[in-house]
């Protein structure tokens, strides 16, 4: 079955099953992530008290954790939730927000990757370079553009092999690889890098697909869904010119998503 055929079926399954997605994420984009999941048809739960997360992860269909704006309490919660996800075979993804910015995030992320074995890791190029220990130029959390595609693909494949996981390297072209096969998703719009939290939303959307698909299909679907939703929002932006409406336009795009007719996916 082609991905073009499979994608609408996965969307349908999310709407039909409404999987519970446990998110432990930063407070800058937490609201956008919850709304992105609702727009797709999933059920978000944003719970982060270290004393209750294990119980909540155990009842979820997927776990999404995000290192943005990290705190002691959230690190404790992410470790506990990751342990439950692993022992209960609940699929999990980690968004490596800002992992290049501090040694604290790098060593915490390495410990998590080792212990929780997330199905998908996600980051922009500088974040994926940082987690692999390759020279990077982190300047805060945003990167948007990446270097030459071949260079980004090499580091994405390296990360996938090093951590035995699927990697989603986000940017102008989203790269998805399991270390052997690789795809690029060219949908999206440069405006997506001009509002905060689109990367975090993409992580939440990947987690929703993880509840109904394999890690590679989930990462591809998450990139496709966000790219198509970004294009929907950009079309609305053309008529209204309102950047404040742009993130809301992404939610409208996720809500109205039905198929992948406009998908620009390339095998690499
Ligand atoms: N220039 C671009 N053209 C098209 N799509 C883009 C562009 N830049 C980013 N995107 C899209 O925006 C989303 C977020 O990617 P990005 O790499 O900016 O994440 P991020 O750096 O983690 O963002 P944030 O920290 O704001 O959450 C992805 O869906 C990506 O495809
Ligand atoms: C702006 C910002 N700072 C930490 S997390 C975050 C949200 C986008 O990653």
UniProtKB/TrEMBL annotation:
Query: What Pfam families does its record include?
Result: HK
Catalytic activity from the UniProt record: 5-(2-hydroxyethyl)-4-methylthiazole + ATP = 4-methyl-5-(2-phosphooxyethyl)-thiazole + ADP + H(+)
Q: Which InterPro entries match?
A: Hyethyz_kinase, Ribokinase-like
Q: Which GO terms describe its molecular function?
A: ATP binding; hydroxyethylthiazole kinase activity; magnesium ion binding
Could you confirm whether the keyword Kinase appears in this record?
Answer: yes
EC number(s) for this protein? 2.7.1.50
What cofactor does its activity depend on?
A: Mg(2+)
> For ATP, which residues are the binding ones?
122, 170
Give the pathway annotation: Cofactor biosynthesis; thiamine diphosphate biosynthesis; 4-methyl-5-(2-phosphoethyl)-thiazole from 5-(2-hydroxyethyl)-4-methylthiazole: step 1/1
What the protein does comes down to: Catalyzes the phosphorylation of the hydroxyl group of 4-methyl-5-beta-hydroxyethylthiazole (THZ).
Please report the name of this protein according to its UniProt entry.
Answer: Hydroxyethylthiazole kinase
Q: Which organism is it from?
A: Evtepia gabavorous
Instruction: Tell me the organism's taxonomic lineage.
Output: Bacteria, Bacillati, Bacillota, Clostridia, Eubacteriales
């Amino acid at each position: 079955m082609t991905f073009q055929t499979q994608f609408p079926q996965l969307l349908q399954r999310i709407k039909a099953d409404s999987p519970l997605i446990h998110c432990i994420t930063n407070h800058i984009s937490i609201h956008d992530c919850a709304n992105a999941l609702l727009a797709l048809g999933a059920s978000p739960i944003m719970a982060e008290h270290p004393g209750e997360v294990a119980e909540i992860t155990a009842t979820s269909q997927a776990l999404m954790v995000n290192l943005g704006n990290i705190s002691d309490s959230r690190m404790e919660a992410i470790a506990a939730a990751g342990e439950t996800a692993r022992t209960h075979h609940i699929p999990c993804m980690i968004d490596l927000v800002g992992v290049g910015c501090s040694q604290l995030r790098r060593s915490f992320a390495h410990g998590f990757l080792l212990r929780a074995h997330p199905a998908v890791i996600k980051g922009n190029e500088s974040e994926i370079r940082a987690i692999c220990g390759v020279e990077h130029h982190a300047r805060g959390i945003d990167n948007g553009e990446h270097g030459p595609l071949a260079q980004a693909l090499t580091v994405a494949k390296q990360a996938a092999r090093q951590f035995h996981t699927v990697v989603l390297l986000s940017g102008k072209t989203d790269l998805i690889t399991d270390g052997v096969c690789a795809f690029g998703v060219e949908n999206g719009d440069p405006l997506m890098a001009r509002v905060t939290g689109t990367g975090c939303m993409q992580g939440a959307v990947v987690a929703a697909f993880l509840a109904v698909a394999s890690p590679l299909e989930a990462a591809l679907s998450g990139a496709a869904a966000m790219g198509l939703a970004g294009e929907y929002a950009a079309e609305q932006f053309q008529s209204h010119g309102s950047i404040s409406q742009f993130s809301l336009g992404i939610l409208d795009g996720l809500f109205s998503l039905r198929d992948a007719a406009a998908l620009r996916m390339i095998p690499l």
